[in-house]
Amino acid sequence: MSSWKQAVARAFDGAEGYDRAAGIQGRVAARLAERIAALPLAPAPRVLEIGCGTGFLTAALRERLAPRSLLATDIAPGMIDRARARAPEGGGLRYLVMDGERPCLAPVPRFDLIASSLAVQWFEDLPGSVETLSRLLAPGGWLALATLADGTFAEWRRAHLAQGCAPATPAYPTPASLRAIAAPGCTLSVETEPLVEAHPDGRAFLSALRAIGAGTPRGGRPLPAGALRRVLRDFDAAGARVTYRVATCLVRREPGQAAEMSTRMLPRVACE
């Protein structure tokens, strides 16, 4: 795991104020659960969740799907602790600290659904991870991902560019690059929609990112104080609003197409 990914895990581990600041995350999880509930899933599906956080999507999936089993995973132990406090294990629900890019499950299970809401934008190799996760799908199973696409934080980026600065936010993938992801034996569709969040001012926006553990910069150096003040001034003058361009990626393993398992999936925990 890279030093940047380790920093991301530490930030989420310490995000004690996540639920108070995660308005967009709650909205996206609810919308993704609605999309998933409309899919032709197997009855009482076997579900794997990647990046469960404090359990927004976990709760929505349990309510809508009544899964036979749900393994909720997250890279940050602190997030697992918060999710477990909200919904204790039992009734088919289990938790596991795991990096979703490197699933370690044995015996290797077959899931009817693998779901993730606003987590895979932190992956270092999204195309490779989609292929890896798709191999865990049962024939006819679904991989449903809500992630961030190009255009996210466009207002924050414009405020930086107006001052001749480069923002430290990630370069999110375009919808075209998401549609180009290949998973053998699977079909893939991508839809995007904008969600806008208003803040009292730019400092409140930055505080909200830090509160949910999403303030880890992707490259670059922090702006000098004077440059940051000018960026904040322009951002506030434009309304202190940010757009999240949310991409919903639906991958389906073709019925009758079981995947061969990779040796990357090393023993870690038994799944039923």
UniProtKB/TrEMBL annotation:
Q: Which domain of life is it from?
A: Bacteria
> Which CDD domains does this entry report, sorted A to Z?
AdoMet_MTases (cd02440)
The record's InterPro entries line, in alphabetical order, gives: Methyltransf_11, SAM-dependent_MTases_sf
Record domain Methyltransferase type: where? 48-144
Q: Which GO terms describe its molecular function?
A: S-adenosylmethionine-dependent methyltransferase activity
Gene3D superfamilies with a match to the protein in the record: Vaccinia Virus protein VP39
Q: Which PANTHER family match?
A: TRANS-ACONITATE 2-METHYLTRANSFERASE, TRANS-ACONITATE 2-METHYLTRANSFERASE-RELATED
> What is the official name of this protein in its record?
Methyltransferase type 11 domain-containing protein
Q: Which organism is it from?
A: Methylobacterium oxalidis
Ranked from the top, the taxonomy reads: Bacteria, Pseudomonadati, Pseudomonadota, Alphaproteobacteria, Hyphomicrobiales
